[in-house]
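Figure 6 in text form: structure in, sequence out.
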């Protein structure tokens, strides 16, 4: 064989061998990850006798639990995880309260990975555990507003002896982009119905409007009031005292926190472990037996498979979009999920769990239509998570009954269109000239190259107004109110659940388990099992997706945007033309 062909065939053989070895490595990594992740019967967690239920608040709790898998072929690494659902977390606490194997529960409160509504529901479940008579102990190195809110439910709240307490109230920072947009030469027109509909306001204004300030002040005041009342009800002081200490910056040290009754003990880690030994009746910390809340849920929370009747929980979690975007959004296939539950004769009632800030009007209307068909055949109870606003409220306002947490953000009954044009920016920054040729006067409508003229603005306003009237009408019919009464509380205004009951947007304060119990009552069910929709994607399908999906340009461009811009940024980058949306503004709150 000539030297040239020896080199060619040698290179091909080497490439083939390398390909085989790389695939062996890849699937070895995947197999190892799957093995370490567990999932078989033999790998089910075991709850030891005399266990301490460890509740690490830094571990995320999801609306719907799911196993996730991702693989990075460049780094030859695989990652597998599973998230604990809010429903299973609450049920695990209920089971632990009656389980003789569990001695007490320990809240590791250094950080909190929950939104307001999840925290509210989970805290209520912790309060019920405390009422069972078993000790509930909270410990943190430092306390701030959010983790102290959760820790304060315990019957013994412990702070590290050299820890800090920094509770200053609640705030929200809004970023306004108009000056930057003007500097870049981009033109943005906002067409809306509702003076409080502020999702597009930062793009057309340099400062907050009076209506938006009023809206935020009311929201923050209501949410903080709920939290302050909850803290005070668990401790030996009033909400008024708590607020006065915060306003006066009086909580200056761990010793002051102890003096005022915010905490019960100032202990180092070893003293906490010694206390745990006393509670468990053991001599050494090495004899303490912990079980995490997630492992306990896997071991103890089981559906009653002998029950034939089912209550379906349908999770509407994420942005409402026309095109399917996978986990984290509600796409055009979501109506099929609702129809599946409607057609299942074993499903006797449905809980529609909504955690959505809204999105596409067209997709919202399709989902709402399917809910109406479902309601005609079976009881439908809505349960609101962190958000059930704008499109999220549109799709659920026709439910037989609506439960909401007091800290849920809801309402936002309004419609808007945010229309950018970049022709002037291209000329100013890139020295590119755009010329449009059309067959008709308004043929370039939707090209995003030039601003809308007055006739086009009027055209878009007419569409926005008609959509708003339809939205108000849907709410009026669903909530048994007049259109005038709905319009009075609408105008795009976002309400906290603590106010939503008073104005008729919801029927009762309560969480997901309350909604499930009520749905079962409506269907006259004594024995039933809960079935969750949509069905969580299998590990195999997630593996294929993670290996094939390299991410879109839009994902890459949005990767490092601040949270305040992500939601509208995603929409702007995906626009093909003017779009009417029912979406609430991003509300980032720190405390």
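Output sequence:
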């Amino acid at each position: 064989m000539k030297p040239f062909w020896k080199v060619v065939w040698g290179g091909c053989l080497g490439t083939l061998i390398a390909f085989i070895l790389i695939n062996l490595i890849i699937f070895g990594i995947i197999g190892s990850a799957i093995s370490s992740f567990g999932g078989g019967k033999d790998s089910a967690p075991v709850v030891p006798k005399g266990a301490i239920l460890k509740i690490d608040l830094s571990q995320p709790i999801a609306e719907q639990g799911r196993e996730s898998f991702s693989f990075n072929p460049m780094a030859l690494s695989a990652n597998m995880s599973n998230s604990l659902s809010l429903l299973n977390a609450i049920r695990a606490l209920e089971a632990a309260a009656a389980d003789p194997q569990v001695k007490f529960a320990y809240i590791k409160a250094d950080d909190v990975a929950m939104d307001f509504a999840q925290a509210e529901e989970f805290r209520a479940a912790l309060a019920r555990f405390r009422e069972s008579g078993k000790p509930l102990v909270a410990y943190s190195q430092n306390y701030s507003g959010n983790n102290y809110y959760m820790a304060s439910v315990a019957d013994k709240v412990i702070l590290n002896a050299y820890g800090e307490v920094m509770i200053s109230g609640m705030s929200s920072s809004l970023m306004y982009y108009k000056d930057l947009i003007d500097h870049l030469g981009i033109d943005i027109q906002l067409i809306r119905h509702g003076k409080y509909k502020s999702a597009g306001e930062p793009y057309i204004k340099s400062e907050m409007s009076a209506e938006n300030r009023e809206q935020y002040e009311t929201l923050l005041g209501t949410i903080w009031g709920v939290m302050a009342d909850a803290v005070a009800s668990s401790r030996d002081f009033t909400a008024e005292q708590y607020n006065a200490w915060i306003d006066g910056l009086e909580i200056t040290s761990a010793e002051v926190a102890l003096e005022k009754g915010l905490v019960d003990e100032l202990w180092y880690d070893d003293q906490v472990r010694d206390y745990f030994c006393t509670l468990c009746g053991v001599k050494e910390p090495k004899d303490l037996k912990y079980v995490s809340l997630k492992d306990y849920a896997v071991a103890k929370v089981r559906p009653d498979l002998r029950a034939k009747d089912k209550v379906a929980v349908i999770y509407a979690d994420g942005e409402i979009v026309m095109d399917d975007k996978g986990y984290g959004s509600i796409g055009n296939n979501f109506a099929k999920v609702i129809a599946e539950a409607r057609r299942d004769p074993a499903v006797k009632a449905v809980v529609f769990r909504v955690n959505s800030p809204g999105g596409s009007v067209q997709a919202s209307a399709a989902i709402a239509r399917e809910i109406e068909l479902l309601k005609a055949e079976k009881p439908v109870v809505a349960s609101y998570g962190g958000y059930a606003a704008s499109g999220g409220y549109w799709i659920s306002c026709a439910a037989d009954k609506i439960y909401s947490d007091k800290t849920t953000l809801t309402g936002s009954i309004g419609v808007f269109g945010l229309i950018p044009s970049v022709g002037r920016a291209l000329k100013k920054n890139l020295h590119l000239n755009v010329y449009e040729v059309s067959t008709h006067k308004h043929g370039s409508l939707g090209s995003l190259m030039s601003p809308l003229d007055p006739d086009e603005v009027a055209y878009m306003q007419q569409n926005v107004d008609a959509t708003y009237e339809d939205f108000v009408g849907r709410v009026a019919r669903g909530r048994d109110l007049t259109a005038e009464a709905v319009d009075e509380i609408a105008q795009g205004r976002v309400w906290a659940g603590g106010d939503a009951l008073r104005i008729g947007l919801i029927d009762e304060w309560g969480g997901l388990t309350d909604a499930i119990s009520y749905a079962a009552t409506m269907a006259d069910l004594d024995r039933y099992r809960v079935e969750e929709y949509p069905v969580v994607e299998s590990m195999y399908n997630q593996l294929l997706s993670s290996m094939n999906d390299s991410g879109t340009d839009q994902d890459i461009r949005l990767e490092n945007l601040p949270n305040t811009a992500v939601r509208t940024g995603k929409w702007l980058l995906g626009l093909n033309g003017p779009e009417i949306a029912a979406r609430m503004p991003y509300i980032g709150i720190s405390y």
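Caption detail: The two ends are 76 Å apart (CA to CA).
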